[in-house]
Design a protein that fits this description.
single chain; Growth Hormone, Chain: A; 79% helix; globular; mainly alpha; 17 helices
Length: 437
């Protein structure tokens, strides 16, 4: 048989190099040409697969703020009491994130994410049987916290291993999947609740996790070992960085933990309580859920836009700019503007919140490298999750005590200003001496 033509050879290379994505090895003796292009394509396939996993899980979880007033009305529970459930979710997930990150470093993302997707779908279905507050805490707090602990951590660290020069763009596209869920999830939940009730809605949301996240999980993998070439994949594999022990002894890690904790306080407070805040202005539940959709739309644009910007102008300037816009938008929101003005401010808030979160993850990878990035990000995510757990709970009890969300929003704006300072110190030049905090 004659040798493959140039075009056919390229197509064969693409097919053969994609075989590992579905668990098969290339044929023995096969010589790969165009390796740099193929590996780059593989990297983008992994980005898409990880993004699908994040969307599949968070599309079902993002509607919790829509369920909040419904559950409060049916069972008579306070908003503060209901808000404890997502807080438990975040704290439990954060406590085991280090172990999940270490397991991902050792075994790869496919096993971890597939298992997580299976359990997340089952738990949403189980949530349809909730009849007591402790049921809510157990199912959507403790158990879902364990199941979801990998869903942000593993995709971000996996994608970070595949890219260097375009890491900001890759992370932006990846995390846009999460934020797309905040566009579709609340509206979907509100629509399903209006037509079928909240119990059937949880059954549907569980099935959607299985349909979307499990196939995506099966396509995830770490990059192959570098074997020549100068692609992003090759350099990411060889870039090294701090060991876990070195990172733990570096005070910059704990500064970044604090910076991300303050971002988490703000982000999850808005995600959980925004629908209730807007509904208190005298609009319907479906119109109030539109506010979360608008915020989510801004975050999708912000992930990709500021991912590209950070690759061009640098991580720190992008982070500072995003936090400034976020603070201004949040303070303007508490002035109770008209609905049209509020929609504009929420879009800007979402745009900048996504940019600050993406650039913080990128800054952490730039600071500590990819050598033990799963475990390092596990430590960092504990900070985010602690802040994210405190934010909704604090805002809920502040509302219960004062009848207003304004004090909570102002408190969050002050935390964002502090986050900027901690991030700047956390991504500074490493100190000459290590081993102290």
């Amino acid at each position: 048989m004659s040798a493959l033509s140039g075009t056919a050879r390229v197509n064969a290379d693409v097919l053969v190099d994609l075989l590992p994505l579905v668990g098969f090895a290339p044929p023995r003796g096969y010589h790969r040409d165009h390796m740099s292009d193929v590996r780059r394509r593989q990297g983008w396939v992994v980005v898409g697969a990880c993004s699908l996993v994040m969307f599949g899980v968070w599309n079902s979880h993002a509607g919790f703020g829509v369920f909040l007033p419904v559950l409060a009305g049916e069972f008579g529970w306070s908003r503060g009491a209901i808000s404890i459930a997502p807080s438990l979710n975040l704290i439990i997930g954060g406590l085991i994130a280090f172990a999940v990150g270490a397991a991902s470093d050792r075994y790869g993302p496919r096993l971890i994410l597939t298992t997580s997707a299976l359990f997340v779908g089952a738990l949403f279905a189980l949530a349809s049987r909730i009849d007591a507050l402790w049921h809510l805490y157990l199912v959507l707090g403790v158990l879902l916290g364990v199941a979801m602990s990998s869903v942000y951590l593993v995709p971000t660290t996996t994608v970070s291993r595949w890219f260097v020069d375009r890491r900001g763009l890759a992370l932006g596209i990846l995390l846009a999947g999460l934020n797309l869920a905040f566009v579709t999830g609340p509206r979907l939940s509100a629509s399903l609740i209006a037509r079928f009730g909240w119990r059937t809605t949880y059954l549907v949301l569980g099935a959607l996790v299985w349909v979307l996240a499990i196939p995506g999980s099966m396509l995830t993998r770490f990059p192959p070992a570098a074997a020549g070439g100068r692609t992003d994949t090759d350099r990411a594999a060889a870039s090294g960085g701090s060991s876990l022990g070195e990172a733990l002894a570096d005070r910059r890690l704990w500064l970044l933990v604090t910076a991300w904790m303050l971002l988490g306080f703000n982000q999850m407070m808005m995600s959980i309580h925004l629908v209730s805040y807007v509904k208190d202005q005298g609009v319907t539940l479906e119109r109030a859920s539109l506010a979360l959709t608008i915020l989510g739309t801004g975050t999708i644009v912000g992930r990709i836009l500021f991912g590209v910007v950070s690759d061009r102008v640098g991580t720190k300037p992008t982070f500072w700019f995003c936090l400034t816009i976020q603070i201004v938008s949040l303070l303007a929101i508490v002035a109770a503007p008209s609905l049209s003005t509020l929609d504009f401010l929420l879009f800007g808030f979402g745009l900048s919140a996504a940019g600050s979160d993406t650039t913080l993850v990128k800054g952490a990878v730039e600071t500590f490298g990819v050598r033990a990035i799963g475990a390092v990000m596990g430590v960092l995510s504990l900070g985010w999750r602690c802040g994210a757990a405190l934010g909704p709970t604090a805002a809920g009890f502040i509302y219960d005590a004062m009848g207003s969300y304004v004090p909570a929003f102002v408190l969050a704006a002050g935390g964002l200003a502090l986050s900027s300072a901690f991030f700047t110190l956390g991504t500074s030049t490493p100190p000459e001496r290590r081993g102290y905090l």
